[in-house]
UniProtKB/TrEMBL annotation:
Membrane spanning stretches: 13-37, 159-181
Protein name: histidine kinase
Segments forming domain Histidine kinase: 242-442
Lineage top rank: taxon: Bacteria
Residue ranges of every copy of the HAMP domain listed in the record: 182-234
PROSITE patterns (UniProt xref): HAMP, HIS_KIN
Length: 442
């Protein structure tokens, strides 16, 4: 039962808030309508129909007492002028039906009940035969008496006004409440959207507090949190930049010193030259490792998000990868595809994936297409792949595979994708190698 109710109820805050407003309105107006219709209207209708029924009984008694046709005609004229009852006598007439046609309101049932209590003759009441009158047919022993009574003496016209007022006021109050609630919900939606955009790493700036006091407080708290996080990231980036400078300075001096050492002469000098080349290679590897460590620690938060055309962007990435001796067999991109991203950060992420394939002597197929809510990028290689039980492990920092490396390439790529609000997954490629599935939201 509870699950069925949840399926019917709206899921949005605006819809549920409007239901909270609508139900009390309907209950209140229903109670008011019942009090009016069930008490006042019935009492007034009963009194009106009793009065008309009494005048009809008076007419019947007078017509039965008066034997002279001239006297009967005189009474009919008096009934028309004084009682507003138009009476027509049809000698020998017979009723084809009895009862009443029904209309909205209690007056039809009240009139039938009043006539049943007042007379013993069969009768039929037509409410729809004429617009302004109600025709009553009474079967007498020697004919039918037709009586046209003014409808305004029986019909409570105010019921339509009351129903219109009830429905109109309910709709008006509901629309006003909906406008106010929409403004309140709009502020909550703006706050949720700002939090979502900030979680994707997009710099949206402070949001303007709006709505109710509690929503304004939440917006102010969000702005303070956003400012603290931004200042923390900027401070950490500055510190890491200083660390990068301090680490590179002695390495640069060592490289220069090794480059200036003599390499010609004796066999010992040749041996020394070989050692120097190995030392220079070690220094280059140390610089590469430092770059990887700093990139992992620094992140890519300082770059702004842009709407990038995917075709030229991925062509540029593939060109750089081929210049770095990566065998890219094919590039398949959906025409007109665009995505929100930090271009330099995405180049680093894709570059790490290409470098991972290069270390395993694998060729790469890069493809991109539009999916629901974003863009899907697939990087497939024909290398040895990664067993399913190790895919979660290799995404952790400093977990290096059999191809060597610092163990940060996949980790950095995943962190960059997550900083965009997306996700990176590892799977088996169709050719048996590794498939890296990247998702970037719009």
């Amino acid at each position: 039962m509870e699950k069925s109710v949840r399926r019917v109820l709206p899921r949005s805050l605006l819809g549920r808030s409007l239901l909270i407003v609508l139900f009390p309105l309907l209950i209140t107006q229903g109670i008011a309508l019942e009090l009016y219709y069930g008490n006042f209207l019935k009492v007034v209708s009963r009194r009106l129909t009793t009065s008309v029924a009494a005048e009809i009984v008076l007419s019947l008694n007078a017509l039965e007492r008066l034997k002279n046709p001239a006297d009967k005609q005189w009474f009919i004229e008096q009934a028309r002028e004084q009682l507003q009852l138009i009476e027509i006598w049809r000698p020998g007439g017979k009723l084809s039906r009895v009862g009443s046609t029904h209309v909205l309101g209690p007056m039809d049932d009240d009139l039938v009940r009043a006539l049943h209590e007042a007379i013993t003759y069969p009768f039929f009441i037509s409410w729809r035969h004429f617009h302004h009158t109600v025709r009553i047919y009474i079967q007498l022993p020697d004919g039918v008496l037709e009586i046209d009574a003014p409808r305004k003496r029986l019909d409570m016209g105010q019921i339509w006004l009351f129903v219109a007022w009830t429905v109109g006021s309910t709709l008006l109050l509901f629309i006003i409440a909906g406008l106010f609630m929409r403004n309140q919900v709009r502020a909550i939606r703006q706050l949720a959207q700002a939090a979502e955009q900030f979680g994707m790493g997009r710099d949206i700036g402070p949001i303007r507090p709006a709505g109710a006091q509690e929503v304004r407080k939440a917006a102010v708290a969000f702005n303070r949190m956003q400012d603290r996080i931004t200042r923390f990231v900027a401070q950490r980036t500055g510190v890491l930049a200083g660390v990068s400078h301090d680490l590179r300075t002695p390495l640069t001096r060592l490289r220069l010193s090794l480059a200036m050492m003599p390499r010609e002469g004796t066999i010992c000098a040749a041996r020394m030259t070989e050692d120097l080349d190995e030392m220079i290679g070690d220094i280059a590897e140390m610089e590469h490792m430092i770059d990887s460590y700093l990139s992992f620690a620094r992140g890519e938060g300082s770059e702004s998000v842009q709407l990038v055309e995917m075709v030229p962007f991925l062509e540029d990435v593939v060109g750089a990868a081929r210049r770095a001796n990566v065998h890219v067999r094919a590039l398949v991109v959906e025409p007109g595809l665009r995505a929100h991203m930090r271009p330099d950060a995405m180049r680093r992420a894709l570059g790490n994936l290409f470098d991972n394939a290069r270390r395993h002597d694998a060729s790469v197929v890069l493809s991109a297409r539009r999916v629901a809510g974003g863009v899907r990028i697939l990087v497939d290689d024909d290398g040895p792949g990664i067993p399913p039980d190790r895919r979660a492990q290799v995404l952790r920092a400093f977990e290096s595979g059999h191809g060597g490396g610092t163990g940060l390439g996949l980790t950095i790529a995943r962190d960059i994708i997550r900083a965009h609000g997306g996700e990176m997954e590892l799977d088996a490629a169709p050719e048996g190698g590794l498939r890296v599935r990247l998702y970037l939201p719009n």
